[in-house]
Design goal:
This protein is α/β, with parallel strands linked by helices. It contains nine helices and ten strands. Bound molecules: phosphoric acid mono(formamide)ester.
Amino acid sequence: MRGLLTLHDLSVNKIQEIINYALKLKGGFSKNYVGKKMATLFFENSTRTQYSFQTAMLNLGIDVISFNAKASSVQKGETLYDTVRTFEALGLDGVVIRHSVDNYFAELENIKMPIFNGGDGASNHPTQCLLDLMTIYEEFGHFEGLKVCMIGDISHSRVAHGNIDVMTRLGMDVYIAGPEEFNDGSAKHLDFDEAIKTCDVIMMLRVQFERHQAKMQLTEKEYFNRYGLNMDRVLKMKDKAIIMHPAPVNRNIEIADDVVECQKSRIYKQMTNGVYVRMAVISMVLDGEL
Ligand code: CP
């Protein structure tokens, strides 16, 4: 299949190539793909990924179709394959898909049009991982030896699952922290307050209430007290350490209001970088380099 579905099969060299290209695009770009048409097919809610992909397409000169699943024939029972096959038949040059089913793309293997994964279940969110990596690379200039901890709702997080694999392959020392009920063993566990004092990157994760099968064991107040990033904790971080969060954020649950845009936060920079990463990925796929 063409496009970008997961980072698992991409070499570290190719990942670095995408980041380098995104950084180049951040310095200036031109609309090289006028006449191309792409669509965003989001079956789950999104602000950043959907509109960042659309901004990337517009920056490249690509015409954008925004698919509304609730006003489409999906409501009449149309399958995912039939929806995507329809967009292929319409002559589109690519689609971005977000879906709640893990590995939804397994049923799309006959599709020849490029598919860009905007997130599948709790498994992959490749462009989020790439924008996280671009932000870290911009900050430190390298990956090797950096200590990163992802904190919070690990078990429901496609961001954590994608990042752990690729960050480890890039030579980063990757840890998880947070409540035991969300610890799925996907990386080495670290005490939260120890992580605050020793890590270069503190990556807070959203508590994904909409994915929980049972009520969280801690109250929101207890969670904030034990695992929330507040200003007292920020003041204990290393001088050059940074705060990241894929967003949307639950203010005053996993991160305090006054920390979201504090001096160490790179949360809005992550969003800005997302546009350039998506421009890089779309360009490289359309040019046959990815
Ligand atoms: N980070 C992220 O995927 O945000 P959205 O759900 O708003 O796209």
